[in-house]
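idk why but the lab printer keeps eating my pages so im just putting this in chat instead. protein + FE2/S2 (inorganic) cluster:
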Amino acid sequence: MPVYSDKVMDHFMNPRNVGEIEDPDGVGEVGNPVCGDMMTFYIRVKDGYLEDVKFKTFGCGAAIAVSSMVSELAKGKTLEEAMKIDAHTVAEELGGLPKNKFHCSNLGDEALHKAIQDYLGKKKQKEGKND
Ligand code: FES
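predcted complex ->
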């Protein structure tokens, strides 16, 4: 059993921002075929800011802690800032992750970035229609 930092344990036991956003502006879903874990991020965007971020994670303890931390880091950030959140930052903020659990932290920023890309894609489509 890997040794987790207190922060990982805290975010695993009391994950922040769990759930779904009704009628979200963007959704990003990722999975790891090796371990079978799945992560979905939902975002609400207002004036270029992430007004709300929620997630649903079916996965290991590290994946849950990572999702929770990513949601906290992303909330209130501009889309540009949120796109810069990466697996290293997340692992660092969590006080480190065991080596064999590092792939779990990749899922978090990937899912968030996918949700932002989904939002941007939809926005572009809408703008195209208005032309
Ligand atoms: Fe796969 Fe953690 S074991 S995400």
